[in-house]
Amino acid sequence: MPRPALTKEECLDRYGVSELPSDPAERIRLVQPWKNATGPKTELGKMISSQNRLKHGLYSKSHLFVYLARVRLEAMMLAEVQENFRLKLDAIKVRVPALGAAVEEILEQEIEASGVRIV
User: N or C, which terminus of the chain has less Cβ within 10 Å?
Assistant: First the structure.
C-alpha cells in the first residue's frame, strides 16, 4: 500500500520546497534516504552484511560461512529459549508443587508430540 502524498506544508517543513520533483532521481537527491539508513541491527544481519563485498557463487566458502553463521546463531537462540523455559518451569514447580508436576507432564507430552528436543 503506497504512502499518501505529502502536503505542501510537509514538503516545505521537510525539504524546503512546495512539492517534490516528478523525476525519481531528482526526488531521491532531494530526500536523501541514505541519511536515515541504520544498517543491520541483529548479530545475524551483521554477520551476513560483513560478507557483502565478497563475490561468490552458491557453493563458495563465503556462502557456507553465512549458512553456518545462521545455523550457529539459531542454535544459540534455541539454547537460550530452552534455558528460559526450564527456569520458568522450575519456578512453577517451586510455587505450586502439585500444579508444577501436572504442568510438567502436559508440557512433556506436548514437546514429545511436537518433536522438539529440550536439552
Answer: N
Measured CA to CA, the distance from residue 45 to residue 52 in angstroms comes to 11
**CA of 74: how far to CAs of 1, 37, 61, in Å?**
32, 26, 20
Q: What is the pLDDT of residue 1?
A: 64
Lookup: cell for 21 = 520533483
For residue range 27-51, what is the model confidence (pLDDT) as tens digits? 888 888 888 888 888 888 888 888 7
Give DSSP secondary structure letters for 16-64: SSSS--SSHHHHHHHH-GGGG-----SHHHHHHHTTTT----TTSHHHH
CA-based R_g, the chain, Å: 26
Nearest to 89 by CA among 74, 105, 73, 76: 105
